[in-house]
Amino acid sequence: MSDSEIYDLVIVGGGPGGLSAGIYAQRAALKTLLIEKGAAGGQIILSDLVENWPGTESISGAELAQNFLKHAESYGLQVLYEEVQQIEPGLEYHTIRLTNGTTYRTHAVILGTGGSPRKMSIPGEDELYGKGVSYCAVCDGFFFRNKTVVVIGGGDTATEEALYLAKLAQKVYLVHRRDALRAGMILQQRVKAECKIEILWNTIVTAIKADAAGVNEVALKNTQSGAERDLSTDGVFIFIGFEPNNQLVPAGTNMNADGYVITDDKCETNTPGIYVIGDLRQKYAKQIVIAAGEGATAALAAAHYVETKKNGGEVCEAPASLFETGRN
Ligand code: NAP
Fold it and tell me: pLDDT tens-digit profile of 142-198?
């Protein structure tokens, strides 16, 4: 293996956290590679509008993702669109193996692979995926213009997506299992004020049914009374949270019972030089701004770690000083 394949830092995952880490790592002059298996931007690409990124009142998720990528690339960040198969911790170097057989060695790793939509695991969900069942309103909402849709969930995602769908559909049923939404207050107020949205409280969807054309009905059950009924619908959008994408987390890494990685305040795992950021990391709230902050934190910590390692344990200067200067 040639020296050119040895990096100071490999970032796995090109969401807001990974790209922010890339910006900070480049500014710290770390030899950095970011590997992303899909499109840069991660989950935010699927967001119709982002209204809580400081300094920008409203922007589409896709545009914000492009801005992050352009910003990181303006510092010369090397972005590779490939799939990582395995991360092997090592004493001298950590090893990153790609599914295409390529291997990279690196002093530090920042893992920011996020999460994927949680499934309901009810009859019809898997069979009717793409035939009326969806996990992305921005991707599939277009097919439900002037139609009726059911949105399942009561969090920020379900309410945001219900509001998006209300712009297209004739009627949106928001089905929530409790009598209070989990979403933030502004979203709650907007959903309640939108006349096309009807909230079905204390209700769960127990099955999704179809005819030859695709989804045509859901079976509902009231969680208080136990009463059951069917509701006609053309589509079902499921937003009930998500599962952490922890498949690449090395064995022996501390995780909580839900599969989120436990780190210290530098975002470092119990393996020195391996950091976890964004929605894969255990924390109070998942937000774009928080993932970006964690990317910055992990890159600063990784810069310190790499410098210390290269200097045989001696750090000449606190690396944080590198980041407060202008672009050069
Ligand atoms: P979430 O906050 O975990 O909400 C999931 C919702 O689905 C909850 O209302 C939950 O009900 C319901 N639910 C869970 N399992 C269910 C099941 N089996 N059957 C029926 N309902 C079920 O997930 P999220 O809305 O995807 O948000 C995830 C994180 O991303 C949150 O931290 C959120 O704040 C953040 N987020 C932020 C933004 C933003 O900043 N603009 C946008 C989207 C998401 P209960 O309420 O009864 O538990």
Answer: 999 999 999 999 999 999 999 999 999 999 999 999 999 999 999 999 999 999 999
- Best residue among 287, 288, 294 to mutate for probing ligand 1, ranked by most atoms within 8 Å of CB: 287
Query: Which residue puts its alpha carbon closest to atom 16 of ligand 1?
Result: 240
pTM for the whole structure: 0.79
Give residue 177's domain range.
119-238
Is position 45 within any domain? yes
Residues 123 and 103 in one domain: no
Q: Is the CB of 237 under 6 A from ligand 1?
A: no
CATH number reported for the structural domain that contains residue 65 in this entry: 3.50.50.60
6 — phi, psi (to 5°)? -100, 125
Residue 176 C-beta-side C-alpha neighbours within 13 Å: 22
The pair of three-digit structure tokens given for residue 194, joined into one six-digit string: 């939108």
Residue where a domain stops, chosen among 238, 265, 294: 238
User: What integer pLDDT is reported at residue 324 of this predicted model?
Assistant: 47
Strand residue runs (E) in 127-252: 133-134, 148-152, 171-175, 197-200, 203-211, 214-222, 228-232, 235-238, 242-244
On whether both 47 and 67 belong to a single domain, the answer is yes
Ligand 1 within 6 A of CB of 161: no
153 within ligand 1 shell (Cβ under 6 A):
yes
Query: What's the chain's average pLDDT?
Result: 93
